[in-house]
Amino acid sequence: MTTIENAATGGKVRVAIAGLGAIGKVIALELGKGGIPGFVLTAVAAKNTAKAAEFVGKFAHPVAVVGLGELGNHADVVVECAPAELLPQIAEPLLRAKKKLVVLSVGALLANDHLVQLARDSGGTIIVPTGALIGLDAVIAAAEGTIHSVRMVTRKPPGGLAGAPYLIEHNIDISDLKAPLKVFTGNAREAAKGFPANLNVVVALALAGIGPEKTVLEIWADPTVTRNVHRIEVDSDSAIMSMTIENIPSENPKTGKITARSVIALLRKMTASLRVGT
What we know:
Largest sheet: 6 strands, parallel
CATH class of the largest domain: Alpha Beta
CATH architecture of the largest domain: 3-Layer(aba) Sandwich
Shape: globular
Radius of gyration: 19 Å
């Protein structure tokens, strides 16, 4: 990526954030204190505009609080940390304006295939960070050859799965579990639909590897764990991989702390002289 320059910000890359929840706040704070050299936070969009204005009002430089559709007017790169159903509203004007969009609601990309085509046609860019996943670089490399199978098993504390549409639709009660309960077996596309706030990781894995239909997933509601645990097994012609990550939840139990840090690392890499990883 070439460095994006803007005279009004001293040549720094302008970043806007859509959503100021557990992830968006961490990224905003890092940008707000100048923690990512070459980048500056210029705008945010949030459901509660008054709280958002109070939050960014503490930063040393002005940050605009705007509507979702206006973010592209204030930034070169927009980080999406919003509810999945808002992705088209955020993405479409940005991509038409040839902006870069970092997407965390990765599962929503499967329900909005037109966004990828829009990016191709317009010259915009969709970037999916590693997020709470492990070994994504290795899977991307393996996909240059032949991947035979990808399987993922996720275990989350019941609170991290509460309210998922799949559980409601199938009348699965996880409110008072005493032992682990397998609540889902299927592919990544089905998981993205049934657990839109929980399983963006498996969609990222699927996009990196053999696609959402062939990527198999088990989900367990597990009262014996305090972390979000993902075990990934990949069989390919270049490597056989078995990987496990235990993510410490953020203030939002559906999201791990490492997700926000993954975005921060991605931004650093965009303009770095030395870039490590595929």
